[in-house]
Amino acid sequence: MKAGSAERRLGPKRVIPYLMAGDPDLNVTEKLLRAAKKEGVWAVELGIPFSDPTADGPVIQEAAQRSLSPSTSLRNLLLWLETIPVQERPPIYLMTYFNLFFAMGLENFVSLAQKTGGIRGAVIPDLSYEDAASVRKTFHSAKLSLIPFVSLTTSEKRMKRIVARSEDFIYLVSLLGTTGKELSETGTLSLMVDRIRSQTESPVCVGFGIQSPAVAAKVLQFADGVIVGSRLVREESDPESWTKLLSSFCTVARSVTEPSGVLC
């Protein structure tokens, strides 16, 4: 059976919440991680603040500015995560920009990430597939994944090269520009998911534009998962509100998933 078949579309659905580490402070971040674990999310995309987050829209940029401090450096956040038992937090993909990995040193990063535990890999939006070979090799040596990006404007030839090396999931960027806008039209996106699935069995998770559970419901009719960023970041200062909103996204995921396949 081909990966893009109807049966494949009935498989597990993933909700991956994004949150900015240290916004408004690390005590709140810990509460949110624990809440996400309790909700049963498949993984969390944990943003590491960076001074020039070029892929992010105003909401996440402002969150990064609020959280920038020595305590939220890449190294210090890994040390901080180590204080939370692995079984009490979801699996984590770190999301930040390549300068932070370069400054820390890739070998130092993967060594500390292994020691921290529960780190599945990283999402690095300013690192192109063509420039990522050595990074990917270093990550693989530590059993960490480097999540690839595909967008609606990615050529067929380049898409095939990218997904041939895909690992945990493929990050499909649904909109041009930065995060924070709402996705309205999904027809082209659905076709792109089918194109990707014709080349790989890796799950396809859609990010950018998932601003409401209603939008998530539309996307999860054809994609394997959604990454929810700006909409949740707006609620980070209020853990109760954040948790309630995350729960509503997970409820949607469960509603479009066969009972045995829930991975919210």
Describe the structure.
- The radius of gyration is 17 Å and the shape is globular.
- The chain has twelve helices and nine strands.
- It is an alpha/beta fold and 264 residues long.
- α7 links the parallel β4 (119-123) and β5 (145-146).
- The protein has one domain: TIM Barrel, CATH 3.20.20.
- A nine-stranded parallel β-sheet has the order 5-4-3-2-1-9-8-7-6.
- It has helices at residues 6-9, 26-39, 58-67, 74-81, 98-104, 106-116, 133-141, 156-164, 187-197, 213-219, 230-233, 239-255, and strands spanning 14-20, 44-47, 92-95, 119-123, 145-146, 149-151, 170-173, 204-207, 225-228.
- Helices cover 42% and strands 14% of the residues.
- α2 (26-39) runs parallel beside α12 (239-255), α4 packs parallel to α6 and α5 (98-104) crosses α6 (106-116).
